[in-house]
Amino acid sequence: MSETLSDIVKTGGDFITRSASGGTISSGVTGTILTLTPPAGQRVRLTHLSVTAAASPQVGISVLLGISTVIDEQEVAGTLPSGFNTFSVGNYQPFSSGNPPSTNYQQFTGKTNEALTILKNAGNTTVTIYYGYEFGL
Amino acid sequence: MKNIISLPIKRGEFVAQFAGSGTVASSTPGGTILTITPPSGQRVRVTNLSTDTSGIITNATLSFDSLDILTSISISGQAPNSGLRYSIGNYQPYGVGAPPVGNHKFITGKIGEAFIVSTTSTTSGVLYYAYEFGE
User: Fold this and answer.
1) If residue A30 lies in a helix (H) or strand (E), which one and from where to where?
2) In Å, what is the CA distance from B41 to each residue of A90, B12, B74?
3) Which residues of A touch B63 (CB under 8 A)?
4) Averaged pLDDT, B54-70
5) DSSP letters of B22-74?
6) Quick one: CA dihedral A102, A62, B81, B61, positive or negative?
7) B10: distance to nearest CA of chain A, Å?
8) What is the interface pTM, i.e. ipTM, of the complex?
9) Are B74 and B82 contacting, i.e. CB atoms less than 8 angstroms apart?
10) Do B93 and A94 count as a contact with CB atoms less than 8 A apart?
């Protein structure tokens, strides 16, 4: 089936930044631990998600864009986003041994008006999680 | 009624047509210290905004035209690692402290929008920047 013009337009195209911010998610929380809802007509771009170099990875983290589960119950890493079940988003503090950072993602971007949700599905978080994001067109 | 020309067909993947870079000297008085204006019909993509490993630009606001993207932040080359420290693009590595949560890969404006950096105080280090113009 050929692609329609409306299909092309709704994919959003290149991201145009309208604001940027970030923060931390404290240890000791569970359930929906972060929701980033873009202003009407805008999209959210997750630019960073990690923990400190010294901290153990945070297990059991899911990342959703709208109803799509982008990451399903994996470990958020700091210096070593490598290997099965471990990930981070954005730049990370350097490491030079072991496997390459194959599970480091540059960024996650949603559709227009889609919220980004981060879940801790069972039990409390045990470390601080750092995040950065942009809202844009 | 909208016609096909009014649809956002210019919002496809960024197509670079020019790349440039530069610095803003230390001890530049507060105010608008950097303006990058794309040619007519093009957009600007800022691909690096940072300092050297010892420098920091405080009380900075980053804007596209009159829209403030980040307000009253610090631009930090080596350690963009807190809610108030930011950089754009690659940076020199550091391995201690909080992760580089304030580092963004690049930011892109609308067609015709200028990228502006302003400060409320005299800069105390060199500001490095790089950018692309494109469609």
Assistant:
1) none
2) 31, 14, 31
3) none
4) 94
5) EEE-TTPPSEEEEEE-PPTT-EEEEEEEE--TT-EEEEEEEEETTEEEEEEEE
6) positive
7) 8
8) 0.77
9) no
10) yes
